[in-house]
Design a protein that fits this description.
Layout: E1 12-13, H1 27-38, E2 43-44, H2 45-54, H3 81-84, H4 86-103, E3 107-111, H5 117-126, E4 132-136, H6 140-153, E5 161-164, E6 171-178, E7 187-191, E8 196-203, E9 209-215, E10 231-234, H7 236-248, E11 249-261, H8 263-266, E12 277-280, E13 283-285, E14 296-298, E15 301-302, H9 303-312, E16 316-322, H10 323-329, H11 332-337, H12 341-348, H13 353-357, E17 360-367
Parallel strand pairs: 1-13, 3-4, 3-6, 4-5, 6-11, 11-15
Antiparallel strand pairs: 2-8, 7-8, 7-10, 8-9, 11-17, 12-13, 12-14, 16-17
Amino acid sequence: MGGFYNRRVNAAPSSSPSVASDPSADALPALIATEIRQGGGWLGFERFMALALYAPGLGYYSGGDRPFGLLPGSGSDFVTAPELSPLFGRAVARQLAQALDATGTTELWEFGAGSGALAAQLLDALGDRITRYTIVDLSGTLRARQRQTCAERVPQHLDKLHWADALPARFEGVVVGNEVLDAMPVMLLHWDGTRWFERGVTLAAAGRFAWADRPTDARPPVDGPFVPGTVTELPRQGVAFIRTLAAQLARGAAFFLDYGFPEHEYYHPQRSGGTLMCHRGHQADADPLVDVGRKDLTAHVDFTAMALAGQDAGLEVLGYTSQARFLFNCGLLGDLEGADLRGRAMAQKLVTEHEMGELFKVLGFVTPADAFDPIGFAAGDRSHTL
């Protein structure tokens, strides 16, 4: 899976230029331009996003070590919850421990482990409760960084750490994905007031990338109404990922933490510009056709689509709630009592409404349908809103 993670605490608008450089200037745009020509002059955005993020050796996540840090001065593009506070992993670990006990499993699987900060926090908190910790990540440079992070912070558990390019055909354990679904390529749809079009990319003057639409039978999962000019996303690859997970997880549970909305909010008429955004140097912009491969591309998660995909494929939905409520349910308040002033301030960003507390949600699954009441959804479960 490349580097499925993200983001963005108070990202500032970017002042990046709105025109792209010549695609021949570097290998990734040249590769994309070749695919456009081979496709008759047009490439669906879903494929464009996949290449921009994950083209082997060239994409944003696969082409090098993308730094994670609190400030732009560190050279980072964004910060994730585990980098903000170790209390994040400590709280999440309590839910994972309960899930391990309830499902009778001993292995953890993490998708898109980024810097390895969450892996180190979970290994530290769970200790001998787990026998193996497998990270699914394609980036060799990120694997090296993950190993280094864990070697520095939890050397006593380093022998439990393993990597995989994909999930095995059948496996057991508990899966965690922090900001993984938002980094999966999406299909773009455009409504002109009369019909739907699939938005793709073509080559304009001087080889620059430009938008181009084609008629499509694809539709959002709701009827609208939609304002003419609306652009929105379909998370087809995210849905496929959840279905694959359901087919291959023989026994266990899965928890996904990410930013997004239920379906009725995702496709609200007022969200006419969609959710696609780019991030670089802790700044945000809405032009994915510029600086391709040098900045992150992301779309918010349609949690209804993910929940239905899992449910239809045989998983049981354990719960759905805000990140703030989930972390509080998992004991974050007690952890804050023992933290110093700076530690409390950083942890507050995880739960305050204008930071990550409300925009970020948590969705849980289990298979088979074992009876257990997950502590993370004990209060404030919003499954009924999906």
